[in-house]
Amino acid sequence: MAVGRPSIDVVADRREDLSTPIDVVLVGGGIMSATLGTILRLLEPSWTIRVYERLDAVAQESSNAWNNAGTGHAALCELNYTPQRPDGTVDITKAVAINEQFQVSRELWQHLVSADLLPDPSGFISSTPHMTFVRGAENVEFLRRRHAAMAAHPLFADLEFSDDPDVIARWAPLLLDERADGLPVAATRASDGTDVDFGALTRHLTDFLTANGVDLLLEHEVTSISRRRDGGWRLKVADRSWNARERHSTVDARFVFVGAGGGALPLLQKSGIPEIKGYGGFPISGVFLRTTNPEIVARHHAKVYGKADVGSPPMSVPHLDTRVVDGGTSLMFGPYAGFSTKFLKKGSLLDLFRSVRPSNILTMLTVAKDNWDLTAYLIREVTKSRWSKFRALRDFMPTADPKDWEFITAGQRVQVMKTKPGSRGGVLEFGTELVTSADGSIAGLLGASPGASTAVPAMVDLLERCFPDRFPAWHRELATMMPSLDNGQWDSDEELAHLADDAEVQRAV
Predict the structure, then answer these.
(1) Do 171 and 131 touch, CB atoms closer than 8 A?
(2) How many Cβ atoms sit within 10 Å of the Cβ of residue 461?
(3) Minimal CA–CA distance to 481: which of 139, 39, 48?
(4) This prediction's pTM
(5) Is 235 helix (H, G, I), strand (E, B) or coil?
(6) How many other CB atoms are there within 10 angstroms of residue 212's CB atom?
(7) Three-state secondary-structure class, residue 270
(8) How many CB atoms lie within 10 A of CB 369?
(9) d(C-alpha 158, C-alpha 134), whole Å
(10) Closest to 428 (Cα-Cα) out of 365, 378, 377
(11) Are 290 and 335 in contact (CB under 8 A)?
């Protein structure tokens, strides 16, 4: 396979030849486009692939390390993935599915590192225990039941539980230092958790792509997508660079993936595919507290998730996280939600209003009517003083001092609103949603968490849905990259031996 070692970003600058459509156009320079581009380059090295990114570098929106929590979402610590049933038992179905998806992502990264197509994984992933921490007798009992249900499954067999303050203090001292409320406490701990710098990973994947014939056009914004008579797509592109020779151009493509984060919904709407009708977006901004004080950072090595207040949405779950970004370690606490009508951090205040269509207005109004608790939560968050927000950190870390912490603005999330099955109303989704056209010639990803952590299985799902005629032939090669796709069944002793040789890489990734 004609692939080489990643080098530096290469920005293509050429006049378009409309007589030869590009095989694959990827809109957006984030983790989703980089992942899909990488898989396709490995599967079909002869295909022409081009990436359009509206900003002056890749991974500047949701994939940027400071615009997300960097949690390798494996459902080890997030309580919203393990709801309690009416009878008091804990449902781990979603946790199992998310953990399996993250393992697939790690398998692809491992494969790329083993093949020398990605650099040292320590540059984008680090070992960071995942913990859940609760207070109060009722919450302690729930966490005990959750642990029992999860530990019975092979994926979570190593999950530890303790309600002993001394043990928890050894796991994460800052949680219990000077805690005087007298409430019982409990925690679970998964030592195999990770912290992922998705920005660095996106840049590495993009380096691989540009070193292997993929065009990357920075400061180029796709402004319109329309169907061609032959079934392909015509994209209008604006060159936003200061020295552009031509401000506007047109390109034809056989397949288009819209991985533009919050910008995906408007572009899919412009494409006119019926599958996007009924979809809307609800934008939510985020803020975190961060400290780089080395004395504080040295005393906390974990991602610790708590429990959201009653009536608060899943995105409000408080967590105190170790972050490793560009080789530096810090702690981050949050999130604090806010409201903006922008769909992207560097977007327009008109984004929300421009997304309203006759086909989705009923969906959006129904969601607004049925989610007053979310509206009330956002109002509370927006009107909180800085000190009120800091008190939430004090609940987690009693010794926190304001002089050690700074507020940073995180990325924009656009929660999915879609038509409720069997009705004309709408429902608010807190996950991710893959939207594909009936003929498989265009697709886009909407939504937020777990997002980047499940980029690989999401893109494999896209390949199966959009290229059903080619997918059977691709499956064997995909399974060598990601054994979980074949349920761990290998086709030859040589492949099994190759996996064993990669044991050191597996531990790293």
Answers:
(1) yes
(2) 15
(3) 39
(4) 0.89
(5) strand
(6) 21
(7) helix
(8) 11
(9) 19
(10) 365
(11) no
Quick one: tokens of 213? 């014939």
Question: Residue 121 corresponds to which tokens in the numbers above?
Answer: 């994984």
C-alpha–C-alpha distance, residues 114 and 80, integer Å: 34
The sign of the dihedral angle between the CA atoms of 387, 390, 392, 397 is: negative
Phi, psi of 164 (to 5 degrees): -95, 115
What residue ranges define each of the domains in the chain, with the CATH number in brackets?
A: 22-466 (3.50.50.60)
89 phi-psi bin (left φ>0, alpha ψ -120 to 50, beta other): beta
**Tens-digit pLDDT string for the chain (509 aa):** 334 333 333 344 444 455 589 999 999 999 999 999 999 999 999 999 999 999 999 999 989 988 888 888 899 999 989 999 999 899 999 999 999 999 999 999 999 999 999 999 999 999 999 999 999 999 999 999 999 999 999 999 999 999 999 999 999 999 999 998 889 999 999 999 999 999 999 999 999 999 999 999 999 999 999 999 988 999 999 999 988 888 899 999 999 999 998 899 999 999 999 999 999 988 888 889 999 999 999 999 999 999 876 556 656 689 999 999 988 999 999 888 878 899 998 899 999 999 999 988 888 888 888 877 777 777 777 788 888 889 999 999 999 999 999 999 888 888 888 887 777 778 888 778 899 999 999 999 998 766 788 899 999 999 999 999 999 999 999 999 999 987 643 333 343 333 334 444 444 56
What's the token pair of residue 394? 């004090």
E strands present in 259-405: 280-291, 303-305, 319-325, 328-338
Query: Measured in Å, how far apart are the chain's first and last C-alpha atoms?
Result: 23
**Token pair 């995906």 is at which residue?**
264
Is the alpha carbon torsion for 161, 167, 171, 175 positive or negative?
positive
Closest residue by Cα to residue 292 from 406, 196, 392, 200? 406
> Which residue has 């989705």 as its token pair?
360
User: Which three-class secondary structure state does DSSP give residue 26?
Assistant: strand
- SS3 category, 483: helix
Euclidean distance between CA atoms 423 and 55, whole angstroms: 40
Q: Residue 151 region, left (φ>0) first, then alpha (ψ -120 to 50), else beta?
A: alpha
Of 467, 469, 458, 411, which Cα lies nearest the Cα of 435? 458
Measuring CA to CA, which residue among 190, 188, 87, 175 is closest to residue 146? 188
CB 41 within 8 A of CB 271: no
C-beta separation of 150 from 76 below 8 A:
no
Angle CA(454)–CA(94)–CA(504) in degrees, nearest 5? 45
Contact 82, 150 (CB under 8 A): yes
Q: Distance between CA 461 and CA 417 in Å, rounded? A: 21
Q: Which helix (H) or strand (E) holds 140?
A: helix 137-151
Q: Ramachandran region of residue 284, left (φ > 0), alpha (ψ -120 to 50) or beta? A: beta
SS3 letters across 94-113: HHHHHHHHHHHHHHHHHHHH
